[in-house]
Amino acid sequence: MSGWGKISDIVGPSNVVRDADGMSPYLIDDRKLYEGDAAAVVRPGTTQEVAAVVGVCADLGWPVVPVGGNTGQVGGAVPRGGPGTVVLSTERLNRIHRIDPDEMVAVAGAGVILSDLQQAAAAEGCFYPVSLGSEGTCRVGGNVSTNAGGINVLRYGNTRDQVLGLEVVLPDGRIWNGLRTLRKDNTGYALKHLFIGAEGTLGIVTAAALKLYPQSLAVGTAFAAVQDPAAAVALLRALRAQLGDCITAYELLPRIALEFGIRHIGPIREPFEERFDWHVLVEAGDADATERLEAALAAAAEDGLLLDAVVAQTGAQRADLWKLREIGAGGHQYRAGALIKHDISVPVGRVPEMIARGTAAVHAALPGTHVIAFGHVGDGNLHYNLVQPDGHDPADFRARTAAMNRIIHDLVAELGGSISAEHGIGLLKREELAVYADPVELDLMHRVKSVLDPQGLMNPGKILMDRGTAS
């Protein structure tokens, strides 16, 4: 029997997609930067089916590229193994196996949509903290494989911090059952960490055991205007002194981001009569969060740390404040022309320096470039977007991507930061990783890859450059 006959018998003929129209959505990334090629898209429905399919591919030397919700920002799920590649979709592994309010654990298949997991946890009086813009379409396996971040990292950490255990299909088709739910387990190497953030290059995550938390009794949300990013950092320090660790989100938003939203989406409900250059959105979870947040902001205002502030008093007002963040961070920035995006992190205290020096260097390289630096300043993560100058040739601006990357990433490295805070490496940043990663660290990555995937069949071409091409 042929390989395709075996795979069809494993998953059923309807779950082997080989026509161009059916495969098309799986072959291009969310940002439409990359397009790949594949022989088929296979949609197994169980871990055993995943293992059997991967085993067939390993025997035949066929590359395998796992894909979840395909919402990644760095091309990590675009097949680049050649026309014989098998794209393995986890979308049918969409069962929430259990929500345990006593153990505070969720066990979910890799294909579970993040928002569905959040809602299932909430229905049991629990809270799953990973929250990001694509939560209505991204999937648990992809979150684990990219170590997804989002707005609540300040208090709860990245996806890595939520993972208690994993079930993984290895490149040779074996199943590693590490789906433990223990909070304490010191039995040797913590193998789960090999697969978190590995972007499917070491194996396919098929299920995850994840931490849950008690739901906050109340949530306080405020939008404040500050003089500059340095004032935003100072305000965070002051709020922490008053509120402790109950601050869950702290988002920096410049006026230019709102202006781009107004230009391309339409008018917004302005929170202040006066226009300010910099804002922060802060959220805290506590029994009396709104009152405590109001008091902390009032004290900060007396100390000159903010220019103005509004505190949401209703759920609708809270939604309006988060809408400002959504508008300021939206994909509409593409409508202004060519866009060069950076997902970086630096120590929180270096954020003001990163913004000031990065902006000056970008303007020196190409005057008129619009710098839109926003994001999760509470954990040092900035989305440092560069939009072409008004009237500039988009093709010329895109051609400057490597030069602009060097400006931003050199500064990030100088400040002790990371060139990829929460989006991963994928295809987009392989060359950058080869430049900025410690040589010993790179060597260890290559060694791990060669041991777990000696044939190089698992999501080939992602994260690591071939040793002969790395610079």
UniProtKB/TrEMBL annotation:
Q: Which UniProt keywords apply?
A: FAD, Flavoprotein
Note the coiled coil stretches, chain numbering. none
UniProt keyword annotation of Repeat present = no
Q: Which domain of life is it from?
A: Bacteria
Q: Does the keyword Transferase apply?
A: no
Pfam families, per this entry? FAD-oxidase_C (PF02913), FAD_binding_4 (PF01565)
Domain FAD-binding PCMH-type positions: 34-215
The entry's family comment says: Belongs to the FAD-binding oxidoreductase/transferase type 4 family.
The name this protein goes by in its record: FAD-binding oxidoreductase
What organism does this protein naturally occur in?
Psychromarinibacter halotolerans
